[in-house]
Amino acid sequence: MRAKKIYWWLVFSLSALPSLYFGLIYFLNPRQLGIDPVEVLLAESGQWAFRFLLITLLCSPLRRLKLRFLSRYRRMLGLFSFYYASLHAVIYVVAWIELDWPIFIQDLVSRPFIYVGMFAWLVLLVLAATSPKAVVRALKKRWVILHRLIYVAALAVMVHLWMQTRGAIGEVLLYGCVLFLLLAERLYRAVPLLNHQSVGKSANN
Amino acid sequence: NKVKSTVYRSVTADDGITDASDARQYNNFYEFGTSKQDPSRYAHEFNPYPWEIEVTGECLKPGKISLEDLLSSRALEERIYRLRCVEAWSMVIPWTGLELGSVLKSFQPTSKAKYVAFESIVRPSEFRGQKSIFSSLNWPYIEGLRMDEAMHPLAFLAVGMYGEPVPAQNGAPIRLLVPWKYGFKSIKSIVRIRFTETEPHTTWNLSNPSEYGFYSIVNPNQPHPRWSQANERRIGPNGDVTRIPTQLFNGYSEVAELYRDMDLSKYM
């Protein structure tokens, strides 16, 4: 019981660390982040949101390999993805466009990478809002179906990242490969599942 | 004598000058790599000296000119220019150099010379970005101007920045400045100039024609397909970054006459 609590705090602290690190530098000496510190905060918060989304998606495959450690914290990791995505959205609205609402509306309506990103955040919001244990119990099987939306969010984030790439494709390729592997593993498993096994077994994918 | 021949232009009271260290550490120069820090990090790997520029095409006096001959042939000017990147950040930088038009005239372009094409250096052993498989650009980096644009008094060839030779990451030893166009038009480390009759290809246009046109004039009313160009992040004095409205022609309204017969909303 004690060890469990220590692990919980360990995972929680490690997950919160990037935001504390960048937040602290920003408030103490923003110039240390780079020439345009807000740009760095915007990029880092977005990247960490995507990283936690991918780590969340990694929990189930690891569990299937009998590596159960991470999957215990899947909900927390997913919530951290939402946390970093929310920081990303707030930095964009408050620090990047400086609450310029006409620009915000224009971006939302006419810039695909902005509305795709906003859509991904909305999906994560729905997932976060339905993550308390009581809601999971209340929704039962519908919760499982609803939370498959994480795949939609992951694909939207991938498109969001790809659409703002200019010249450098290394980063997009790296994230793309990781996401592809995570989705391919599920697809591979889903096909025989459709043929032989009962639907009930898919409850935790 | 030096002070007398120095000409200061196009700086307004509101435009504070960007810190030299910022202008040297926040660069787009994909030959060194695609991140903003790559150029300053790897600048030492590039040795620009000795340097010469080859001039060819529709002109009476083609040939090669060394940097020394170019500099000793005329007085240098200082100009303080706004630099507006297509990515919506900007700086204000003092440059030392020569008016592009006066240099071009010495090669005596013919009446067939309707455009000027520029080419950057290719030296993969010194520019690690030219070896990278993760770049979507092809080398050499190429750019171009219409002849009247190139002859406009604002078009400038810089050899100095903040009173020192242009650092490698900023396009040593000689680079173009076309301050009313997005920064990528201002080609760096020029090794070749060619007078042409037809519109030359340009690197970013070849890479993504729907996003980067030949003209690429700073225009707040024409958004980039992916982001607004109405505002810019000015990296100003003391490292202060402020969001300011972008001006048509980057504020250099004297170039408007070059485009009086063109519908700017139709030309990217």
Automatic annotation (TrEMBL), chain A:
This is Protein-methionine-sulfoxide reductase heme-binding subunit MsrQ. The gene is msrQ. One of its GO terms (cellular component) is plasma membrane. Binds 1 FMN per subunit. Binds 1 heme b (iron(II)-protoporphyrin IX) group per subunit. Its cofactor is FMN; heme b. Residues 46-157 form the Ferric oxidoreductase domain. It comes from the Bacteria. Pfam families: Ferric_reduct. Heterodimer of a catalytic subunit (MsrP) and a heme-binding subunit (MsrQ). It is a multi-pass membrane protein. Belongs to the MsrQ family. InterPro entries: Fe3_Rdtase_TM_dom, MsrQ-like. One of its GO terms (biological process) is protein repair.
